[in-house]
Design a protein that fits this description.
five-stranded mixed beta sheet; alpha/beta
Length: about 550
């Protein structure tokens, strides 16, 4: 072997020939017209042919039909135009006719004598094509799965919406049924108690009528007095029942003022001790530095009396009742567990605890429902605790009850703390008499019988009374009488002018005019959030002769 047979890299001609023939890719050398002059063994082996069978053929003859078309329309023109191309995907045809996926690179070269030749490298793309097919199939499957999932989600949303809708309908039907059951229980209880009270009232009035028609005797006079007392007592109980219903419904007109709960409990102690009797020990405990609360003192007293009566009935053999007052704080964690809306913050706690029989969980679940009672028939209305609940909630507070059978019950009233307020200065008010006066009063009431009763009482007290059935007539009367000192008006009236609107117009005309409202229901113009508007004077219905006399005289003298 001569030195000329060795390349600069130290490779012999045989080495170079072996590299060409057995390269990992196929090599084709063709003339300018694309006719194959040389092909390596690798490509011939891939095509299952001998190299000699391939030489002399055009490169396009090795392609399938689609490849031939592509070669003539793209491959050859591109190669002539730019002299090369890279990684063109084609399919060669083996001897048996099956395709061989390949990637083809080509470059056009010119020799010193100007002859053109094409050097083509061919890479077996069988694995790559398979990977591409698998990738495309995986993508197709993924898209199909995504489509199915999307469709499932759409139908799932529809099914969930349908299920939720059905559940909401069922819950609404259940709430309506519970509401109707509660309304039925409430109306049944009201009808039962009012029928009893009406029987007493009507019976008393009938007795009075019979005795008045009979000859006057001491026995007849006594029967009349007893009948009047009986009818009066029935009417008072009916008024109390109505007040309790309004308290439960949170529709009673509250007049909140700064109150020291500890002082209120102390002042109520004697009454509570007499209510409890001698077999029950009674004690009060007050924490130091007790805050003030802004509540209706009279209603708080009523609530404590109701709770004391319930505690007494739960301790028939005696026991101990404790009323404790202290400061308390309800944090966010606690109020989040309470079913009704309760604001976190500072409260004054009034806790009423007894050592009575206690209650089971079933009783506790119903304890605040109106007319629910564990007492014997005729021993209670079932409105005591519901009235307390309504008062506390209407006052912006919270009530919680704890009880265990055989151990006793603790009821905790959380009343909102009054910040920045102070107790009002106590004034000694002279006892009022029912002598009345001589001032002129404009009475406005759409209920004819009630207007006649009120006018009769006021005239009996010596006042000059002008009557009007509605606000518009009242303004006409006021315009023609300059001596009206007091406007006594109902709040809820027909004809588009309620008592508040009437009073505002009357005060615009007569700024010195005194105004006294009366109403039996709080959802109106002078009560908001269950509380009287500032500066409002109210006489709640039903009212007695003495209550009317005192309220009118006190307002006129103010």
């Amino acid at each position: 072997m001569s030195d000329s047979d060795i390349s600069e890299d130290g490779l012999t001609g045989d080495d170079l020939r072996d590299l060409f023939e057995d390269a990992p890719c196929g090599y084709v050398i063709a003339d300018g017209a694309g006719r194959i002059a040389r092909v390596n063994r690798t490509l011939a082996r891939w095509l299952d042919q001998e190299p000699g069978a391939i030489r002399g053929r055009r490169f396009s003859d090795l392609l399938n039909v689609a490849g031939k078309i592509y070669y003539e329309t793209h491959f050859a023109p591109l190669l002539r135009m730019q002299g090369y191309f890279h990684e063109v995907a084609l399919d060669l045809t083996r001897k048996a006719g099956d395709p061989l996926p390949v990637l083809v690179n080509a470059v056009e070269r010119s020799s010193d004598d100007g002859a053109r030749r094409i050097v083509i490298s061919v890479f077996n793309a069988t694995d790559r094509r398979r990977y591409e097919r698998e990738l495309l199939e995986a993508r197709r499957l993924a898209e199909a799965a995504s489509s199915e999932l999307q469709q499932l989600n759409l139908t799932l949303e529809a099914r969930v919406a349908e299920e939720v809708g059905d559940r909401l309908k069922a819950e609404a039907a259940l709430r309506q049924a519970q509401k109707m059951e509660a309304v039925g229980q409430l109306t049944g209880g009201v009808a039962h108690d009012f029928n009893n009270l009406l029987t007493v009232i009507i019976g008393g009035l009938e007795t009075v009528s019979r005795q008045l028609a009979a000859p006057s005797t001491p026995e007849a006079t006594g029967r009349i007095k007893r009948a009047v007392a009986m009818a009066t007592h029935g009417a008072e109980r009916a008024a109390t029942l109505t007040a309790r219903l309004l308290a439960f419904a949170r529709r009673q007109p509250l007049d909140p003022r700064p109150v020291d709960p500890a002082r209120l409990v102390t002042g109520l102690a004697d009454l509570l001790q007499r209510t409890l009797g001698e077999t029950i020990e009674f004690e009060t405990v007050s924490g130091a530095g007790l805050w003030l609360s802004n509540v209706d003192a009279g209603e708080l007293e009523n609530a404590l009396v109701n709770l004391a009566v319930n505690a007494r009935d739960a301790m028939p053999a005696g026991g101990r009742l404790t009323i404790e007052t202290s400061n308390a704080f309800l944090d966010d964690d606690y109020v989040s567990t309470v079913p009704e809306p309760v604001a976190a913050g500072q409260y004054v706690l009034v806790a009423v605890s007894d050592t009575g029989m206690g209650m089971d969980q079933a009783t506790l679940d119903q304890v605040f429902e109106p007319f629910f009672t564990t007492k014997e028939v005729g021993k209670g209305t079932g409105l005591g605790l519901s009235q307390v609940y309504g008062f506390v909630r209407q006052s912006g507070g919270h009530i919680r009850i704890y009880s265990e059978q055989g151990l006793g019950t603790a009821i905790k009233l959380y009343l909102p703390r009054l910040v920045g307020g102070s107790l009002p200065t106590e004034r000694v008010i002279d006892a009022l008499t029912s002598d009345g006066g001589t001032e002129t009063i404009l009475l406005v009431e759409d209920h004819e019988d009630l207007r006649a009763y009120s006018a009769g009482v006021l005239r009996e007290l010596g006042y000059q009374v002008l009557e009007a059935p509605n606000g518009r007539v009242a303004l006409d009367v006021l315009q023609s009488h300059n001596d009206v000192a007091l406007l006594f008006t109902d709040v809820v009236m027909p004809d588009g002018l309620d008592g508040r609107q009437l009073a505002e117009e009357a005060l615009r005309r007569r700024p010195e005019l005194k105004v006294l409202y009366t109403t039996g229901y709080t959802r109106n113009a002078i009560v908001h959030n269950g509380r009287l508007d500032a500066g409002v004077n109210l006489l709640g219905k039903p009212f007695t002769y003495r209550e009317l006399a005192e309220k009118v005289r006190r307002l006129l003298d103010a």
